[in-house]
UniProtKB/TrEMBL annotation:
SUPFAM superfamilies: Cytochrome c, Type I dockerin domain. It is found in: Cell envelope. This is Cytochrome c551 peroxidase. One of its GO terms (biological process) is polysaccharide catabolic process. InterPro entries: Cyt_c-like_dom (IPR009056), Cyt_c-like_dom_sf (IPR036909), Cytochrome_c_Peroxidase/MauG (IPR051395), Di-haem_cyt_c_peroxidsae (IPR004852), Dockerin_dom_sf (IPR036439), EF_Hand_1_Ca_BS (IPR018247). One of its GO terms (cellular component) is cell envelope. It comes from Botrimarina colliarenosi. GO terms for molecular function: cytochrome-c peroxidase activity; electron transfer activity; heme binding; metal ion binding. Keywords: Heme, Iron, Metal-binding, Oxidoreductase, Peroxidase, Signal. The keyword Signal applies. The gene is ccp_4. Gene3D superfamilies: Cytochrome c-like domain, Dockerin domain.
């Protein structure tokens, strides 16, 4: 079998693997190459033009949207941000991506109490959900609001000594040296220059495009009104009467902080987690309040991830609010004293905020695919990958920090078999992924719904 034929067979196998959800695991390549359509996905239609009426009317559209005029969402910009978001190259040892701590299936939160960084250390706080992050009036980010803008926030974890540990100047050079990032930056910004400012803008565009507005609750609002959603008109809500009761109770007791039909906040609050402040947060034990969209699938709750279920969160507000000296005046010390029926109703209502379309959308899924033989992560299998294989020959997975990049067959050791992987794929490129997908995949949306060859590593938990 000649090299060209081996490449065609390999690409066909990759396309079938992508479509069937059986593509090679991340550990076999460490980092991946983007498998994208030749035309950028339409983020503007999804996140701007097609928003429902209750997202495009005051106060949500004019008082809460923190999109700056200097960085509106664009298709190519958000798609570049998507690639960056999932790319483990952004960490010092190619082990950790933004998506390692913000997973799509949990509404871009972390199901763990704390997140694990690139060398196994743990973050000081729980990873906040990014769902509907665009709608927060002040535009400040992190639980303690230390970042003035989303553009500032997205670069901080990349440089953090625990989270990703990278030097931005080195990272810019690393990304510019790949075959594909200059192309993606040119699509987004007009030329091939890779800069930290453009990285920031693209990542912020992608995060702001994470608009969740297709939950059962949204369909109930469309069937009724914002003030009186018609839960009975929505298929799939098991107990619409209880959902309506939960909504009414939520409006009386919770909507002072969780405002509008996006259930977003406009300030920081002390919610009485502790009688004496343990973490000052933004000051006086106050913390930023994320949107409640997709709250039922998050797995962990609060800035420190202390609660493991939505039932525990409801119980806190029912009976666990501590008489902290700085407790928000809208919250009663000791809690609201909900009865069993009220707790059950609140739970049913909060479950109507789960947006399955968003949680499975191709727009927000991992676009990276393991390109076999691409040991230096450039997006092209060439002589440099042979050099990388030769330099790594004999290494084992236990002997390196991060993924074993030249381990082409994923068996945990760099040996002659990995040379064969490089040889059989010599000349392959990330652009072949686009060509192969466009020719062989009749339903592009199915690629993501079935799984796109996750090319960034899952973190090892302690």
């Amino acid at each position: 079998m000649n090299v060209a034929h081996r490449q065609r067979v390999g690409l066909c196998a990759l396309v079938l693997a992508v479509c069937c959800g059986t593509a090679p695991a991340a550990q076999a390549a460490g980092i991946g190459s983007p498998a994208l359509s030749a035309i950028p996905a339409d983020y503007v239609s999804y996140a701007v033009d097609e928003l429902p009426r209750h997202f495009t009317t005051p106060p949500l559209n004019n008082l809460f949207d923190n999109t700056p005029a200097s960085n509106p969402i664009s298709n190519a910009g958000a798609e570049l941000g998507r690639v960056l978001f999932y790319d483990a190259r952004l960490s010092h040892n190619n082990s950790t991506a933004c998506a390692s701590c913000h997973t799509q299936e949990t509404g871009f939160s972390d199901p763990e109490e704390l997140s694990t960084g690139f060398e196994g250390g743990q973050t000081g706080r729980h990873s906040m959900s990014l769902t509907n992050a665009r709608w927060y009036a002040s535009g400040r980010f992190f639980w303690d609001e230390r970042a003035a803008t989303l553009e500032e926030q997205v670069l901080a974890p990349i440089q953090d000594a625990v989270e990703m540990g990278s030097d931005l100047a080195d990272l810019v050079n690393e990304l510019a040296a790949t075959d594909f990032y200059p192309v993606l930056f040119e699509r987004a910004f007009g030329d091939t220059d890779v800069t930290r400012e453009r990285m920031s803008q693209a990542l912020a565009q992608f995060v702001r495009s994470m608009a969740s507005y297709q939950a059962p609750y949204d369909r109930a609002v469309e069937a009724g009104t914002a003030g009186t959603p018609d839960f009975a008109a929505v298929e799939g809500i098991d107990n619409p009467t209880r959902a309506a009761q939960g909504h009414a109770l939520f409006q009386r007791t919770c909507a002072g902080c969780h405002r509008t039909d996006a259930q977003v906040a406009n300030n920081t609050f002390n919610i009485g987690l502790d009688a004496e402040t343990v973490d000052e947060g933004a000051g006086d034990g106050e913390f930023k309040v994320p949107s409640l969209r997709n709250i039922a699938v998050r797995g962990r709750y609060m800035h420190d991830g202390r609660f493991q279920s939505l039932e525990e969160v409801i119980e806190h507000y029912s009976s666990g609010i501590q008489a902290n000296p700085d407790l928000d005046p809208g919250l009663p010390a000791g809690g609201f004293r909900f009865n069993a029926g009220e707790k059950a109703a609140l739970l049913v209502f909060l479950q109507t905020l789960t947006d399955t379309e968003f949680l499975m959308s191709q727009l927000f899924s991992n676009p990276l695919v393991a390109l076999a033989g691409d040991y230096d992560g450039s997006g092209v299998v060439d002589d440099k990958d042979y050099t990388a294989w030769r330099a790594a020959y004999g290494l084992t997975a236990d002997g390196v920090s991060g993924p074993l990049a030249a381990d082409g067959n994923g068996d945990g050791v760099v040996d002659a078999a990995d040379y064969g992987v490089w040889r059989d794929n010599f000349g392959a490129s990330w652009e072949d992924l686009t060509t192969a997908l466009s020719q062989a995949v009749p339903e592009p949306a199915a690629v993501t719904l079935l799984g796109l060859a996750l090319a960034w590593p899952t973190r090892r938990r302690r």
